Amino acid sequence: MLETALWTAQAFLGLFFFAAGLPKVLGRGIDRWIGFDSLARPLVIVIGVTEIAAAVGLVAPMLVDMAEWTTPLAAVGIGVVSLMASGFHIRVAGEALNSVECALWAALAGTIAIGRWPEVSDAPTISSDVLIGPIAAIIPATIAILIVLTKRPIELRASDQQHIAPAR
């Protein structure tokens, strides 16, 4: 039963993030999404490629029975992207519901990562010293992102205002 639930969640999350990432990469239909016009095009492309790669990594390795250990890592990546998107939506007035939605996507991704975590035991081993560099980069980057999120709200154009429901 757990296996069926995990596969269902993986397929659902994978399809969603593939569908969310594709317009960002192609640049079509992105104008309907609030806030993306205020981001640099290369950043939007990186976000889209990341979402597509994570969606494929969530399902494909287990389907082809190779490198299954990447599936929980893809789920963790989707969780991180979703939490960052939640912060992005918090900055926009009237986007609280979208922020909660992104947090729910992160929770689903986290659940998949936990359910599939035993697959990581088959991963190639690396020295724990390798983690020092990424940790040293991630901590200050996270602090900087949090400062930017709290100090710089998104400026909405008049065309974006019509997509936002009035705050209650």
Give the key terms:
mainly alpha; 168 residues
What does this structure look like?
The chain is an all-alpha fold. The protein is 68% helix and 0% strand. It is built from six helices and no strands. It has helices at 2-26, 41-64, 70-90, 96-116, 132-151, 158-161. Helix 2 (41-64) runs antiparallel to helix 3 and helix 3 (70-90) packs antiparallel against helix 4. It is globular, with a radius of gyration of 17 Å. The model has no long low-confidence stretch (mean pLDDT 79).
N-to-C span: 42 Å
SSE series: HHHHHH
- The average pLDDT score comes to 79
Radius of gyration: 17 Å
Q: Please tell me what the overall shape is.
A: globular
Provide a count of the helices.
6
DSSP strand count: 0
The portion of residues assigned to helices is 55-70%
Q: Indicate the low-confidence ranges by residue numbers.
A: none
Oligomer: single chain
- SSE class: mainly alpha
Strand content: under 5%
* Main β-sheet description: none
